[in-house]
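Feature request disguised as a bug report, sorry. It would help if multi-protein outputs had a clear separator. Right now it looks like this:
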Amino acid sequence: MTLFLDYLRVELAGSGLDCCTFAEPRGGPTTTASLRVALEIIPCTSDNEDVLASVHALSEARAVERVVSLADVAATARPRALAVAELIRSLEQPMREEPPRPSVVVAEATSSSPTTPAVAQPRKFVLHAEGETRAVPTRDTTMWGARAGLSVPWHKLYVDVDLGVDLASAHDDLGEVLFRSASVGLGVGPRFAGRTVRLDVGLRIEMGWAWVHGETSLADVRTGAKSDLISNLGLRASVEIPVGMKIRPRMALEAGGVLHGMNGEASKRPLVGLSGYYVLAAVGLAVSP
């Protein structure tokens, strides 16, 4: 074993280790020892020429070991063949640390350009409801009504469908004549949309049904009633402002002619009705769902 220690001191020269002292196989390490080298003959082998060389790092509870066969090694070379110094150097090498993975920072992309107000995008559809008044100068008639509709954009155009009712009356010495109507309207035309204002301009056709009947308090006056188809064609302009709001004011103006009208009479004199031309104004609300 003295020859083995000589070889080991030579191999470890310059490593900074003070080598070496003997220790009892069953005894504990000395107080200054940092490594413990053990050589153990492996039993149950031919000629008992297999040696288990192990090195233990006492401070880190780490160990390396190697089985060395000395069967084909000359007796004088066997201390060098154990290669314990290599085990010691491999044990002293720090464990390879996994290189740190590059951290990935996810940042939100921001624009340095100044923020400009965006043009309001057209909604898929708009619901609207208005109160309206319609003047019919040729019959000296003013009709009051209400209308609700749906406006749908189509490219740079719009299509508008609405339902409405109107009421008018006229007084005479013989009594009163009442005029009522219900109609459906269809409008189409170009749409001009800006940041705050939306303007629709187009043709509108209206078809419906009207009822006329008379009321009197005179016993010798006979009243009657009738109904008929009515239809109109006009040019309509409606504006909504501001378009960025979900609920916003809506105004409309329309002028046109009566295609098929009906009148209410007293003693064969027209008192109220829809004929000739008309002018309409409407004010209400538009709602974008």
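(second protein starts here, but nothing in the output says so)
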Amino acid sequence: MLKKYESCIGITLFKFRKICIEIWYFPSHYEITPHKHPRENIEVLYIFGSAVFYRISPETNEKQSAKMNFIPRFLTVPAGWIHGFRVSKFPLIAINFAKFIDGDATSASEDIILT
């Protein structure tokens, strides 16, 4: 199933009950607005590209940053954590592994709250 969010394109690879796996393409120089996904715990596997990622703990308000540079890497985004990223001159491709804590799984592009 093809999904779109702003200029980004996603494809649902697997969805069953509380699990949803999607692959996403983010164009060069794309920057996503800070947001959160209140109903899902996410593991993101960055598989290609370069980006600066951050997440903010809702309990401590501590900001954690990470830079992705063409080396596949997992990042965890617990439900409700504010996060975002900025893509460099190379597009970014990532796989989103989501486990929903409330209700059936949907796309990350549908379970998004801008902050």
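Even a blank line would do. Unrelated, but nice: Residues 2-114 form a domain with the Jelly Rolls fold (CATH 2.60.120.10).
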